[in-house]
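quick one, 156 residues, struct below
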Amino acid sequence: MNSIIEHYYPTFVLYQALRGQMMDLLVDEDLAFTLPGNPSLGALCVEIGETEQAYIDSFRTFKQDFGYRLDDPEMSGRVGRLQEWYARLDAELRAAVEALTEDDLQNKVIERGFSVSPQIQLTIYNEALLIFYGKASVYLKALKKTLPKQWADWIA
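---
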């Protein structure tokens, strides 16, 4: 077990759990909801999944590339499919981080237009999740969804 998994990941999974809490509030029809000038909630949900895939790949290749796009037009309209995809992505992310050796953590960097350590890379992804949650909370409020306590305490 490397130091990120041992020390950082237990807290990081709490941030990931917010996405699951949000998905538990939604039905398929909610994913079509749009706010003027913005993508649908479902498209926003696909975007964070694509972002997670880019981070997974960065831990494997030590290079950040945001070019990945999901080739599944129905994903943005199905809560259950999104939940399954997120579960797979979360497992792949953990496996990619877990595969890093302590030497990797101390001596390798991830190139993303600038160089960062794997620890900082995971922190940046954590911040991407927070940005997503901030955006998503606007949709949830417009849909009159009651936010779970963790959302109310951490995001809203």
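The helical segments are 3-25, 41-61, 79-98, 102-107, 118-142, 149-154.
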